[in-house]
Specification:
By secondary structure, the protein is of the alpha/beta class. The chain contains 11 helices and 8 strands.
Length: 304
């Protein structure tokens, strides 16, 4: 969405430099195919549809085409409705000023100057086209989050650098205040509790655990000979996808584990039903320091 104007500008610039049209087209197509294949393979390995083996045939499974899956998912209104529906002008009139503030205003002023004079460099036109095309294409989908527009920053910076020296001093005061405010909001306040919560839960991931039964419940702590499976189920509501790698829990080792369940987009009744069906512990038990309360669900299996 943001990159194709830059590719077109590079192609035109190379053609003007004396290289043949066919040679440039082959270089552009070859580079695009290599990049696409690399991204498809990387996505397939990451999402687990493709598996790497140390010997022949080396790989097995299927490929994951993330871009096509993204287009398929976002083309269905009912899917977007689970995340929230916004007006299609949200990106241009709200999210762009929210993210980039004075830089966005400077870019609009620069675009207006170009339309009046018709003079601009190839690089500046490509950068402006990158921003305009990206915002326009993203605005087609009615679900519009500000974070989707982060790839617009390079294009904004490149398309406005010529006007920086022309900006009045008040622009820089506003620019500093704007970035300090956003640094505090997005860097320290916006969903700031997610990472500390995951880090806290990671402290309860033990490679080996021991438990002592108290009725149908158990008080468990780190240590012992292992062999027990302890699961802490955590429900996440109205947050971004929590970074599970911070738990640092091995995939195939028995012990204490944390299972994070995302309930984003579900209705209140669905959330209540899921929580009601989950395992509940005896809240009257008083664990000692270093112990956690679990409910015994099967032989050597405990959950909370």
């Amino acid at each position: 969405m943001f990159a194709w104007p830059l590719g077109v500008a590079s192609f035109v610039s190379a053609t003007r430099g004396g290289r043949g049209l066919i040679a440039n087209a082959m270089c552009l197509a070859g580079g695009g195919v290599l990049a696409a294949v690399g991204m498809v393979v990387a996505d397939s390995l990451y999402y687990g549809s493709l598996h790497w083996h140390g010997s022949y045939p080396f790989v097995s499974g299927s490929l994951t085409f993330t871009v096509l899956n993204n287009l398929s998912y976002n083309s269905q209104h009912e899917n977007l409705a689970t995340h929230g529906i916004q007006p299609r002008y949200m990106h241009a009139l709200v999210n762009m000023p929210l993210l980039f503030g004075p830089l966005y205003i400077l870019a609009i002023a620069g675009l207006w100057g170009f339309l009046r004079s018709g003079r601009s460099s190839c690089v500046g036109m490509a950068a402006a086209g990158s921003v305009i095309s990206g915002v326009a294409l993203l605005s087609v989908a009615p679900h519009q989050e500000a974070r989707f527009l982060l790839p617009a920053l390079p294009g904004l910076a490149i398309s406005t650098w010529r006007y920086v020296n022309l900006a009045p001093r008040v622009f820089w005061y506003v620019w500093i205040v704007f970035n300090v405010i956003l640094f505090v909001i997005f860097g320290g306040m916006h969903q700031a509790g997610v990472v500390p919560v995951v880090a806290f839960l990671g402290e309860s991931v033990w490679p080996h655990a021991q438990c002592r039964a108290v009725g149908s419940d158990a008080l468990c702590s780190a240590g012992g000979s292992g062999g027990l499976e302890l699961t802490t189920k955590v429900f996440l509501i109205s947050t971004y996808l929590a970074p599970r790698h911070l738990l640092a829990q091995p995939n195939e080792v028995a012990g204490a584990r944390v299972d994070m369940v995302d309930l984003v987009g579900l209705e209140a009744e669905e959330i209540r039903d899921i929580i009601a069906r989950s395992v509940r512990i005896n809240a009257t038990l008083v664990p000692k320091e270093g112990e956690l309360v679990f409910r015994r669900t099967a032989d050597k299996r405990y959950e909370r």
